[in-house]
Amino acid sequence: HREFIQDPVLKQRVTSLIGQEAIHSKLHNEYNDALKDVEYPVDLYRFLGENFFKYVFLKFPQPLKLSMMAGIEHFTAVLAEYMMKHEKNFYYSDDAKSRA
């Protein structure tokens, strides 16, 4: 909805966010490929996630959608922080799945 924004500063911020999200998406795809290489059921999880979001965005009221997205963003931020603080458990493990 960037075309509806009139404020040039806000429009630039939205443009930057779109670029950031494109990079984010690319990194997710690379990470998913690494998980597939060690036999994680990535396709199943993506299928479940995509269908969950389709249902939520068709059936739920806007305030609940926003709350759910905020909750998911918070969860992923907490998970990322945990992984960074405990990187030896993930990157230096003998288990290939943990390293992925």
UniProtKB/TrEMBL annotation:
InterPro entries: UCP07580 (IPR016516). The keyword Transcription regulation does not apply. One of its GO terms (molecular function) is hydrolase activity. Keywords: Hydrolase. The keyword Cell membrane does not apply. Pfam families: Metal_hydrol (PF10118). It comes from the Bacteria. Transmembrane segments: none annotated. This is Metal-dependent hydrolase. It comes from Acinetobacter baumannii. The lineage of its organism: Bacteria, Pseudomonadati, Pseudomonadota, Gammaproteobacteria, Moraxellales.
